[in-house]
Specification:
electron transfer activity; 12 helices; 7-stranded mixed sheet; Rossmann fold; binds flavin mononucleotide; 23 strands; single chain; alpha/beta; about 25% strand; Metallo-beta-lactamase, Chain A; 2 domains; elongated
């Protein structure tokens, strides 16, 4: 009953939408859902590229059978082994026992470990090609975007590249599949959030993959999540290039924690100082109110970051401590940084933030501000001065 969607004459989309999962990887909220994308190339031989998470196998196979019209899948190409894409491999193999599974040496170790599949394999290396008839496919090994086995598959005939998680976006596909047929701005925002949270740590592997992609002409980017990119290709390559270099546009993210408003007042005063100096791109976040994935997205987007926390049981406010771990986990580079903190009897936050800046190798701007109990005039002025220094940095 379910229909596949054609992308070109020979390439079909057979992916599915997941609007039920609350948290991606059980940690990142999905307000717009997520899609698991899989593609079919129909030629003298038929290639299926990646699969979908297992709960969706029934709809997925229905779509696949719609494309196949009685034929079999000759090749199953595995660009990425993460279970949201590899989940239906066993179901495909059961349906098409003669299918040749294409992957690299690392793929096959994982395939054996996850699904016990060790036969019917065709190993490719970087630059290997296979012919489906009219369509010649070339494989690029692109390790660590975002697992070691990740690779990309390029179809020279339709100039389409199947990129695995690279160029992915959160957001289930609302009707269309190709960017030109969708309300694209929502997906561009979710593209940033996906990159920052999922691929953000792997800046250097992403740069290497971009270099490899330069060698071919690309009319379609077909990732495993979110829209197929056609009209937005220059933009998303630009965004990926900039995010993976950790460049950061001009802008200041202020992230604070506060129980009774004292630290919050300091955040407001720093923003005042920034604004008085003409800075417009200022984003203030309460770390306990806004989900970390959205704050991380802005930290990737902008070049300066200020963090503040009350001292809590001789440490950081717990949500702030956990947020530092999330930044560290993404290894965000080159940020200009400052910090502030409020306490009542012994301030611990200043030394924790100072050590964090050192660990991240960030440049510390201005004089960090510390206050005890409520915000008073000296510290208020120091916060405004810190804002002004950050505006100049
Ligand atoms: C549960 C709890 C633990 C605290 N632990 C410390 C502490 O270890 N050292 C300290 O100097 N102040 C401590 N404080 C006091 C706060 O750091 C201080 O009141 C601060 O100004 C609160 O900032 P806020 O108004 O932004 O929440 C603690 C407060 C609470 C509620």
């Amino acid at each position: 009953m379910f229909k596949a969607k054609s992308i070109t004459n020979d390439i079909y989309y057979v992916g599915v939408n997941d609007r039920q999962k609350l948290m991606f990887e059980n940690q990142i909220p999905l307000p717009f859902g997520v899609s698991y994308n899989s593609y079919v190339i129909v030629d003298e031989k038929i290639a299926l590229i990646d699969t979908v998470e297992i709960p969706f196998a029934e709809i997925y196979i229905d779509k696949l059978l719609d494309v196949l019209r009685g034929r079999s899948v000759d090749y199953l190409i595995i660009n990425h082994m993460e279970p949201d894409h590899s989940g239906s491999i066993r179901a495909i193999k059961r349906l098409f026992p003669d299918v040749k599974i294409i992957g690299n040496a690392r793929t096959f170790k994982m395939l054996a470990g996850y699904y016990g599949i060790e036969d019917g394999l065709m190993e490719v290396t970087d630059g290997s090609t296979i012919s489906l008839g009219k369509h010649e496919l070339k494989f690029f090994l692109t390790p660590m975007i975002h697992w070691p086995e990740t690779m990309m598959t390029y179809d020279a005939s339709d100039k389409a590249i199947f990129t695995g998680d690279a160029f992915g976006a959160f957001g289930a596909l609302d009707g269309g599949v190709v960017d030109a047929d969708l309300m694209v701005n929502k997906y561009l925002d979710e593209f940033d959030r996906y990159f920052s949270n999922i691929a953000g740590k792997y800046g250097s592997p992403v740069q290497k993959a971009l270099e490899k992609m330069h060698s071919v002409q690309i009319d379609y980017i077909c990732p495993t999540h979110g829209p197929v990119w056609r009209e937005q290709i220059p933009k998303i390559i630009d965004m990926t290039n900039s995010l993976s270099r950790y460049e950061g546009k001009r802008g200041v993210v202020i992230v604070y924690a506060s129980m009774y408003g004292n630290t919050e007042q300091m955040a407001e005063a720093i923003a005042e100082g920034l604004s008085e100096s003409g800075e417009k791109n200022i984003m203030i976040y309460d770390v306990a109110k806004t989900d970390a994935s959205f704050i991380l997205t802005d930290i990737f987007r902008y070049d300066r970051l200020v963090m503040g926390s009350p001292t809590y049981n001789n440490g950081l406010f717990p949500e702030m401590a956990s947020f530092l771990l999330k930044i560290e986990n993404r290894d965000i580079k080159h940020r200009k940084f400052s910090y502030f903190g409020s306490s009542t009897w012994s301030n611990a936050t200043m030394r924790i933030f100072a050590a964090f800046a050192e660990k991240m190798k960030w440049e510390v701007i201005g004089t960090a501000v510390e206050e005890q109990q409520s915000l008073k005039e000296n510290a208020y002025k120091a916060c405004i001065a810190l804002g002004k220094e950050l505006a100049k940095a």
